[in-house]
Write a structure and sequence with these properties.
eight-stranded parallel beta barrel, alpha/beta, two-stranded antiparallel sheet, binds ligand PBG
């Protein structure tokens, strides 16, 4: 066998790819259960597990079932679960009073889970869409989503969630000034330790469709959310939003959706230096599931690759409907 003529490569990058142990040894990023936040949909009733049609494999859980799920999540070291309510239709109004009802679905769920599973963090969204007869994240008056009027309701909602025991608030409403308003309310009401993970770079996206089914907001929503969620064409704005939210008192920031916005995961984490999370949203989940169900992609490796992509882009962690499945696999090395 003769050596190929010069210029012969001095480096052979394939040396480091030749075996599984070598690839693991040089891997730059890793996924761990501690990177994963698990969103769970809560519904009324007892012993209920209700499939979400557009998210195969995801169920809405009644509070008793959510306690079991939270316990399983804590056992595989998922640090945080995020609860989203499927509010009964008759409780949705144009004034969104149910958002700050101390006994609304997520507040009851939070108290019950905190009592039964003290070792897992609970994150609650602050936004009006699950409670709004108009389907929007803010109050609608004469067809317009009102900013400052909405802030007054969000403040009450945030305080009701803090009182229920939420550890992290996730303002996802995209009203101007909400982070500062919520932070001030928390300080003034003796909740200095409640964290805020701001949905800072939240885009007006087609990928939220299945989520709106899951929380039952699809029917009510007229039009789109483009007057408050960000334009997918913009990049610098995401950075401005993240810096402003940190300035107003957010502890962590989020980019949402995930996969179409990896550039922003990278920019925001690098340029703010703050813990940066990505939300792999319902539509991303639905795409992977649909393609896998058709035999068009290999489901398990597509999921792992999608999650690793967020870590590679610089994310601190990921909100994903796959959290439980992946954390279970990671904590049982024999299964992967
Ligand atoms: C509510 C909210 C949405 C999501 C999280 N919080 C939907 C929206 O803004 O319309 C989407 C999550 C997902 O699609 O998985 N403000």
């Amino acid at each position: 066998m003769t050596t190929p003529p010069a210029p012969f490569p001095m480096g052979r990058p394939r040396r480091l790819r030749q075996s599984d142990w070598m690839r693991r040894m040089v891997a730059q990023t890793q996924l761990s259960p501690s990177d994963l936040i698990w969103p769970i949909f809560i519904c009324e009733g007892e012993n209920v597990e209700e499939p979400v049609a557009s998210m195969p494999g995801v169920n809405r859980l009644s509070i008793d079932r959510a306690i079991v799920a939270a316990n399983e999540a804590a056992n595989v070291e998922i640090p945080v679960i995020a609860l989203f309510p499927n509010t009964p239709e008759n409780l949705k109004t144009s004034d969104c009073e149910e958002a700050y009802n101390p006994d609304n679905l997520v507040n009851r769920a939070t108290r019950a889970i905190k009592a039964a599973v003290p070792d897992i963090g609970i994150m609650l969204d602050v936004a009006l869409d699950p409670y709004n007869a108009d389907g929007h994240d803010g109050l609608v008056r004469d067809g317009e989503v009102m900013n400052d009027e909405t802030l007054m309701i969000l403040e009450r909602q945030a305080l009701s969630h803090a009182e229920a025991g939420a550890d992290i608030l996730g303002p996802s409403d995209m009203m101007d000034g909400r982070i500062g308003m919520i932070r001030r309310a928390l300080e003034q009401n003796d909740f200095p330790n409640v964290s805020i993970m701001a949905y800072s770079a939240k885009y007006a996206s087609a990928f939220y469709g299945p989520f709106r089914d899951a929380v039952g907001a699809t029917g009510a929503l007229k039009g789109d959310k483009k007057t408050y969620q960000m334009d997918p064409a913009n990049s610098d704005e995401a950075l401005r939003m993240a810096l402003r939210d940190l300035d107003e008192g957010a502890d962590m920031v989020m980019v949402k959706p995930g996969m179409p916005y990896l550039d922003l995961c990278s920019r925001v984490s690098r340029e703010t230096g703050a813990p940066t999370f990505a939300y792999q949203v319902s539509g991303e989940y639905a795409m992977i599931e649909a393609a896998a169900a058709n035999g068009w992609i290999d489901r398990d490796s597509a999921i792992a690759e999608s999650l690793l992509g967020f870590k590679r882009a610089g994310c601190t962690g990921i909100l994903t409907y796959y959290a439980m499945e992946i954390a279970q696999k990671l904590s049982d090395p024999m299964s992967i």
